[in-house]
Design brief:
454 residues; alpha/beta; TIM Barrel; two-stranded antiparallel sheet; 13 helices; hydrolase; Glyco_hydro_1; glycosidase; Beta-glucosidase; beta-glucosidase activity
Length: 454
């Protein structure tokens, strides 16, 4: 691996930070997701009698110095994190930013610098202001300018502290129904007649334009900024050699894995999306000049999450599986985690080769990990299963690098235990650092080093 390779780990602010109303922070779309069985319930505001796990999460807000010191002890040289939009602009509509919020991230970045850890910052990781969501969020074009106001503030404030920026987390999740929540900014339940592909793709177009404009803005503030996209890998294999299965897998991989990065890297809507739009009766509202903006505001690097793979096919009786935004068919050659996610380190090699062959840009894996029910026994957590998962993926990573793919970073999910996005619980843990808190927010919040930490 290269000497300046980013060996790190990742988190998202809405899953670790807490301090949801501290020092002037406003309410985000995640702050109104209440605990229920299965997926969280979206409530119109913060209501009495409901529990919202994002409100304290694992309390990074009050433990960041300790947590960053642990990251340094673990040997990390990089940390992929996000900024809470609502710490900077509580409703998104303010003319001036919240100084206390800006000062908090100054302290975080200064602490990272003290420990020699490079921040890689996601600008929007599923948590736009709730007030903007109530007004239509990303379905409204005005969201672009509000996002850019936020971008300008953090670019100027942290221009000497942050080099690497990711405009939107897993932007391609907008292609699946779950995206209505993770896109954060259209207030609509996941299972709802309002949650249409048409709506999500209109939101996605606005995010494409916002990302491109943010890239251009960033370069005007600091030409050394490195701007990236972030894609949730949804690798699909054909279930059989049946030509219908093979063609279906090709189409799924193009639409779900390549469409968004094609726009953000190549700077235009690809040829194949016309058929997809026609099949789904999609008609986008665009403005004159959008095409020029997309072509000018392309990103410098590619980043992605990679957890698992799946199969697709036309057999209606094939066994189904699900995982990180990926629902498909079971692969008989793979084993599954205790939560049913198919473990496929070889798939990461296949995926990275496809991406690099297509774009020839540096690649960061900014999420990869195993969720499991870790047990704290006598102050120790023996997570050999996580070590085995990571070992095989790191072997793959080294192979891919030796084969000529320009991988510049590996930042697994996650640095520290965190609240799950879809359920808001902590039953399924990912971190190298264990936090003594349960899904109801009870516990000492003491940090423990897992075996995988060492």
């Amino acid at each position: 691996m290269k000497k300046d390779f980013f060996w790190g780990a990742s988190t998202a602010v809405n899953q670790v930070e807490g301090g949801w109303d501290a020092d002037g922070k406003g309410i985000s779309v995640i702050d109104v997701l209440a605990q229920t069985t299965g997926h969280r319930e979206e409530t119109r505001g913060v209501l009495e009698g409901h529990y919202y796990s994002s409100h304290q999460a694992v309390d990074f807000y009050h433990h960041f110095e300790e947590d960053i010191a642990l990251m340094a002890e673990m040997g990390l040289n990089s940390y992929r994190m996000s900024i809470a939009w609502t710490r900077i602009y509580p409703t998104g509509l303010e003319a001036e930013p919240n100084e206390a919020g800006l000062a908090f991230y100054d302290k975080v970045f200064d602490t990272l610098q003290k420990h020699g850890i490079e921040p890689i910052v996601t600008i929007s990781h599923y948590e736009p202001p709730f007030e903007l969501a109530l007004q239509g969020g990303w379905s409204k074009r005005r969201m672009i300018d509000l996002y850019l106001k936020y971008c300008q503030t953090i670019f100027e404030r942290y221009k000497d502290k942050v080099r690497y920026w990711i405009t939107f987390n897993e932007i391609n999740c907008m292609l699946v129904p779950f995206g209505i929540m993770t896109a954060g900014g259209v207030f609509s339940p996941i299972r709802s007649e309002e949650n249409t592909l048409q709506l999500r793709l209109q939101c996605l177009h606005h995010q494409f334009v916002a990302s491109a404009k943010a890239v251009l803005l960033a370069k005007s503030i600091n030409s050394n900024f490195q701007m990236g996209c972030m894609i949730a890998s949804m690798l699909n294999y054909p279930l059989t050699p049946n030509q219908e299965d093979v063609r279906l897998a090709d189409k799924e991989n193009l639409i779900k894995n390549m469409f968004c990065s094609d726009v953000m890297i190549r700077g235009n809507y690809p040829y194949y999306i016309k058929e997809y739009f026609a099949e789904n009766q999609i008609e986008l509202l665009t403005e004159e000049g959008d095409a020029d903006i997309l072509s000018q505001g392309t990103v410098d690097f590619y980043s992605c999450s990679y957890y698992m793979s799946s199969c697709v096919g036309v057999d209606p009786d094939a066994k189904a599986v699900s995982g990180n935004l990926l629902a498909g068919l079971s692969n008989p050659y793979l084993v599954e985690s205790e939560f049913g996610w198919q473990i496929d380190p070889k798939g990461m090699e296949i995926f990275l080769h496809r991406v690099y062959d297509r774009y020839q840009l540096p690649i960061m894996i900014v999420e990869n990990g195993l969720g499991a029910k870790d047990e704290l026994v006598d102050g120790q957590i023996h997570d050999d299963y996580r070590i085995a998962y990571l070992r095989e993926h790191i072997k793959t990573l080294k192979n891919v690098s030796n084969q000529g793919v320009d991988v510049i970073g590996y930042l697994p999910w996650s640095a520290i235990d965190l609240m799950a996005l879809s359920t808001g619980t902590i039953d399924k843990r990912y971190g190298f650092i264990y936090v003594d808190v349960d899904s109801d927010g009870n516990g000492s919040f003491k940090r423990y080093r897992k075996d995988s930490f060492y």
